[in-house]
Specification:
Blueprint lengths: L5 E7 L6 H11 L3 E5 L12 E2 L2 E2 L9 H14 L22 H12 L9 E6 L7 H6 L2 E4 L4 H10 L3 E2 L4 E2 L5 H14 L14 H5 L2 E2 L8 H19 L2
Parallel strand pairs: 1-5, 1-6, 2-5, 6-9
Antiparallel strand pairs: 3-4, 7-8
């Protein structure tokens, strides 16, 4: 492994599946790491598509993928976040952490041990709900996680949120937003990743070929998710460092 190598970990999945929580936990346990949030690459509000009179923040057309690709390229070359991006996503409150710091430390010790190569490796964790619908970004990532959860769980979590910080202000979901906008958009952008387009079924050959990983149990507890993710990270770092 060359000194300049940085590993890019993609954490994707539907809204409220635990992406940002897992990304922040990985940042906590992987000492030389930082997060790039796809949500910091939304287009201006005037360019967000409108569906039936409602802004659709959950479609590919709402994201500036050219800018996101450029940011990832910059990180690969410079091992740091670019300065020309307005970072606001960390302002969003994720609520009470489902995994305590002591629990995360114990999981790290179990999986990585005391002298793991991962301890001295740099990581950028890319957190986004639309990472694997873009072939360029999919190929830019070294480690790819796709989180899943049942429809009703996702809907309940999304509707419990107070809102989201945006570039121009603050967004609050209007009534029916999840079932009419969020979920149909997720299905449309991700159904090709699953056999028979069944989002609760096994991954399709294309997703397996791209080495996209999804946990064996849908909607695992975050402690189990962190342990699984760290095991994959350790495996991939060893593999890609040879």
């Amino acid at each position: 492994m060359t000194e300049s190598k940085i590993f890019l970990i993609g954490v994707s999945g539907p809204s409220s599946s635990g992406k940002s929580t897992l990304a922040r936990l990985l940042r906590y346990v992987l000492l030389k790491s930082f997060i790039l949030h796809e949500d910091d690459f939304y287009k201006p509000e005037t360019e967000i598509p409108v569906v039936n009179g409602i802004e659709d923040w959950d479609c590919p057309e709402a994201i500036d993928f050219m800018a996101l690709r450029a940011a990832i390229d910059y990180i690969k070359k410079n091992r740091k976040l670019p300065d020309n991006v307005h970072y606001k996503e960390d302002q969003n409150n994720l609520g009470t952490p489902p995994v305590l710091s002591e629990e995360a430390d114990e999981i790290k010790k179990q999986v990585l041990g005391e002298n793991s190569v991962a301890e001295n490796t740099e990581f950028c964790i890319v957190d986004g709900f639309l990472l694997f619908n873009d072939d360029v970004i999919t190929k830019q990532l070294d480690i790819k996680f796709l989180l899943r959860a049942p429809y009703e769980s996702l809907k309940k979590r999304r509707e419990a949120r107070s809102g989201y910080a945006t570039i121009e202000g603050f967004w609050v979901d209007p009534p029916g937003y999840f079932e009419n906008i969020v979920w149909p958009g997720y299905v449309k952008a991700h159904k090709h990743l699953f056999e028979g387009e069944d989002l609760e079924g096994p991954l399709a050959p294309y997703a397996i070929q791209q080495d996209i990983r999804t946990a064996s149990a849908i909607d695992s507890h975050m402690k189990d998710m962190l342990k699984w993710a760290l095991e994959v990270v350790a495996e991939k770092v060893r593999e890609l460092s040879r």
